TrEMBL record:
Gene3D superfamilies: Glutaredoxin. Keywords: Signal. It comes from the Bacteria. This is Thioredoxin. Residues 8-133 form the Thioredoxin domain. The keyword Signal applies. CDD domains: TRX_family (cd02947). Residues 1-21 form the signal peptide. The gene is trxA_3. InterPro entries: Thioredoxin-like_sf, Thioredoxin_domain.
Length: 133
């Protein structure tokens, strides 16, 4: 075994699982599948070029790192705004723009944030999702 590969495999095994967990990329039908299973879904409508989206992502990642329960109990789904802005999900939820965060459970929307990067506001939305999970 190559030394680098050996060291990397040992490092990966030593790191907590939550470091490697990531949001799921949206595909049509994915949200409905998770909601039908009873999951609490946290949608992040984002674009790769959006600076507000990048700021939200940094806050989300910090909050997830601080509280592993977020990732263990909430299903995070990234929705690419450029690809899915005209999708039935986006239209049905009346998503006004990228940098929109939405929490869903069952057939209800529990909360949403549009273009907000304040960690306290985002944490409140994540706590809403966690309490519903």
């Amino acid at each position: 075994m190559h030394r680098r590969l050996f060291l990397a495999s040992g490092l990966a095994a030593a790191l907590p699982l939550r470091v490697w967990a990531a949001a799921i990329d949206y595909t049509p039908g994915l949200v409905q599948t998770h909601l039908a299973k009873g999951d609490t879904v946290f949608l992040d409508f984002k674009a790769s070029w959006c600076s507000t989206c990048a700021a939200q992502e940094r806050v989300l990642n910090k909050l997830k790192a601080d509280n592993p329960a977020y990732e263990s109990k909430i299903t995070f789904i990234n929705v690419d705004w450029d690809e899915y802005r005209s999708d039935a999900l986006t239209k049905g939820l009346k998503i006004p723009r990228r940098s929109t965060l939405v929490v869903l459970k069952g057939d209800k929307e529990l909360g949403r944030i549009v273009a907000q990067t304040d960690p306290k506001v985002i944490k409140a939305l994540m706590d809403t999702a966690l309490n519903a999970a």
